[in-house]
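note to self: dont lose this again. the chain is below, predicted strucutre after it. 146 aa total, dont forget to put it in the shared folder this time
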Amino acid sequence: MTALTLCYLAAGVFFLGGLLSGIWKYQGILKSAEAVAPEYVNVLHRASLLYAFASILLAEFVELSNLSNSMELLGVAMAVGFFAFAQFTYLIHGILGDTDNQFLKPYRLGPWKMPGSIIHGAMVLLILGEVGGFSILFWGYLRTLI
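---
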């Protein structure tokens, strides 16, 4: 698989996820006395659409990069993999309806309390993966300017 293919595949999956979670959001609004969807259904919907377009942006940087396909694929896989990881956590919180703030102590995942080291460790990895993945592609573009 090429880096560009992964970008477009991710964009399609995230965009479809955004459209489908929009239906879930609408159902939540209809069922709510306050006409609001559950928080993590909202987060999932918005983030899905944003990650779809972020994946297209990654594709543009793949096109502009002069790195090898394996390096570009690494950068894309890092960023998109953590986009998907974030989406998965939003989906789980949306299904479970267990919180309106995943960083509120005590950290919860359904009925379970989660150690802070897992929550914050996952966030550190997410930051490194997303920033690091894009940085690889951005470096590939910057090399074309030199």
